[in-house]
Write a structure and sequence with these properties.
The chain is mostly helical and 161 residues long. The protein is built from seven helices and no strands.
Length: 161
């Protein structure tokens, strides 16, 4: 959205945000229905020990946020012409690093779940912080290996502390 603000266009992000909010509301309504979300739990073999509607809200929010990003990207591309290939290559590198981080975090949660007692708040907090911390480290290492300047700036800021 900041790119549009730099171009003195505040209306486009606003209109797209309205569509995104409507999409989020509709998605939340549909995905909080037990009938819609339950088959996914059966496919993934997830025990339904919690309220599945919470997952539906998270999925709806995530999908609407991704939709907003994609709509902004294509509108910006239409407004400014083709975006530099360097920019798109950086975006793909960050996306790949994020996916690797996600796999590491989920794998870490799985491994830690078999070692840590998750019936206590302390156990869940430990699992969250250890898996999340491992994910952050892997993300920074992967982005550094990809020679991303933006990631190097983050690492330099961390070194200050």
């Amino acid at each position: 959205a900041r790119s549009f603000y730099a171009l003195s266009d505040t209306l486009t992000p606003f209109k797209l945000a309205l569509w995104t909010v409507l999409t989020n509301a509709l998605g939340s309504f549909l995905l909080t229905r037990q009938v819609v979300i339950q088959p996914f739990f059966e496919i993934l073999k997830v025990k339904n020990s919690f309220d599945a509607r919470i997952i539906g809200l998270a999925i709806a929010f995530s999908l609407s946020s991704i939709l907003y990003m994609v709509l902004l990207f294509f509108k910006l591309k239409a407004k400014t012409g083709p975006l530099e290939t360097k920019l798109s290559s950086v975006v793909w590198k960050f996306l790949l690093a994020s996916m690797i981080m996600g796999v590491v975090v989920q794998g870490g949660k799985f491994v830690l779940g078999s070692v840590i007692n998750l019936n206590t708040g302390v156990g869940v907090a430990m699992q969250t912080f250890i898996a999340g911390g491992l994910g952050v480290v892997v993300y920074l290492v992967v982005t550094r290996l990809m020679h991303l300047k933006e990631a190097q700036r983050i690492i330099e800021k961390i070194k200050i502390f």
